[in-house]
Amino acid sequence: MKAVCWHGANDVRVENVPDPKILNPRDAIIKITSTAICGSDLHIYDGFIPTMEKGDILGHEFMGEVVDLGSAVKNVKIGDRVVVPFTISCGNCFFCNRDLWSLCDNSNPNAWMAEKMMGHSPSGLFGYSHLFGGYAGGQAEYARVPFADVGLFKIPEGLTDEQVLFLTDIFPTGYMAAENCRIEPGDTVAVWGCGPVGQFAIKSAYLLGADRVIAIDRIPERLQMAKEQGKAEIINYEEVDAGEALKEMTGGRGPDACLDAVGMEAHGTGLDALYDKAKQAVRLETDRPTALRQVIVACRKGGRVSLAGVYGGFLDKIPMGAAFNKGLSFKMGQTHVHRYLKPLLEHIQNGKIDPSFVITHKMNIEDAPKGYEIFKHKKDNCIKVVLKP
Fold it and tell me: Residues 286, 49: contact at Cβ < 8 Å?
């Protein structure tokens, strides 16, 4: 089969690799009909995620048709259309039983690696390094899905791939990030980053009852989408100081909740951004937390901070004094995708949202290297790339 394989920083190749096989009675094999390039994939592409090996198959946003099943999988049948959560979860451990699916105790066979770095291991992830299990990803023609009796989610008739594909990651990620803001009636929510996750966070904040959403970015087409599709007020941080603008827009108080949908490769215009870029380039710092610093300083006293953008390791110069003295609350983490599949599908079916609005590019899987390049460099007004195997 054809698959998108990692060979180093800024080097992905479409190669012929062996087809996946059933290895466990709880496995399924999926013929992939749609897959996507995620902003998190760019962290791998840029070389910032450790424990990648040459030839690893990328991708964690994918869906398709069931073509083979292990003997223990009874929730779906061959021929069913399914979406696959990017977090791999056993369904039986302490954390899965508490709806904390991305913290599964049993799905990362390389848990010892994560434990050395983090103290404990999160769940395994598709196509996201050996630190998170070394699982082959879904930017391919076929994929093996472990714990398929828990993970596979059947799609009803009448919905296109484009409407449901993002249930695999970015729609639940944006929704959980907005939920983590603990939105109350009348709240103003500020969202840093208008990439795909940021767009869904904006939509979700309104679904959860926000009165105002203010979106911060520097890319005109992303800000335009946030304004037109998300009905957000917008700030271009290259034109004005985002912190000062937010004060002015909120009567000096600051937003009630601030949401970081940027993460470890944030851009910025100040000295701190140059400092981060220099330290990250020589690996003296793992992440560029420019957006996180702004979020902490901008949030109102007693406000809530939600982190949806991925952070990978050790961050420098975080204003914890501001966070402490302002009494901020933080909530963050990989998305508990399984928790959100049914309610978000209902939002799609009821017409409250059509997630396909973020798609700007559709390509054959052979064009994946080009897709990575235009997505990384934001060429051709690119916001989201969907690949068709």
Answer: no
Helix then strand then coil, in percent of the chain rounded to 5, is: 35, 20, 45
53 by Cβ neighbours in 10 Å (0-12 / 13-18 / 19+) ranks as exposed
The amino acid at 224: Q
Which residues make beta-bridge pairs with 62? Answer: 35, 84
Residue 300 CA, chain-centre distance (Å), reads 26
* DSSP state string for 344-364: HHHHHHTTS--GGGG--EEEE
Backbone angles phi, psi at 166, to 5 degrees: -80, 0
pTM of the model: 0.97
The SS3 assignment for 228 reads helix
Phi/psi for 100 (5° steps) reads: -105, 65
| Residue-wise pLDDT tens digits, 188-243 | 999 999 999 999 999 999 999 999 999 999 999 999 999 999 999 999 999 999 99
Residue 15 has what pLDDT? 98
Angle between the N-to-C axes of helices 337-349 and 170-179, in degrees from 0 to 180, rounded to the nearest 10: 100
Q: According to the 3-state scheme, what is the secondary structure of 12-59?
A: EEEEECCCCCCCCCCCEEEEEEEEEECHHHHHHHCCCCCCCCCCCECC
- How many angstroms separate the Cα of 38 from the Cα of each of 3, 324, 337? 16, 33, 15
